[in-house]
Amino acid sequence: MKLRDILLSQIYEKESRILPITRFKDEEKIILPRVQLVNLGNDRFEMYNTSSDIYYVMEDWRVMFAHVNGLRELSNSLSYTYKHSELEKTRRKKCSTDEEMERKQIRVDNLYSQLADIKKKNPINLNKIKDEYIEKFEESSERRRLRS
Length: 148
What we know:
five-stranded antiparallel beta sheet; single chain; alpha+beta; 5 helices
């Protein structure tokens, strides 16, 4: 069993005691904003980033982050990082009319408000800790490989 699979299994076991499980067809899911952990059955699990319309398999370092800090912290941190990116993108947007400028300002104000709400949960900016968790995952993988 690969390290990723072990981590996902442990995360699911721990978090399923705390967070609600949604059952759909043959799958069980733990769903939080921007995160979905799926029990596919037969001791198979997968974690998805749901920040866009297309769900992406969560990167290994984010799985490690969730293992260390919990799913809710990953969800809060993904929400914070996503809103922060949206704010920067919106602020850089060029406007050619007063109406566009007004819409832009409303969007910026809304994003600031949303970020303030998320900040109350003390999220971690994932962009700032990415390298640390990539290194943790690689070190754990290497230790596991050496034991085999």
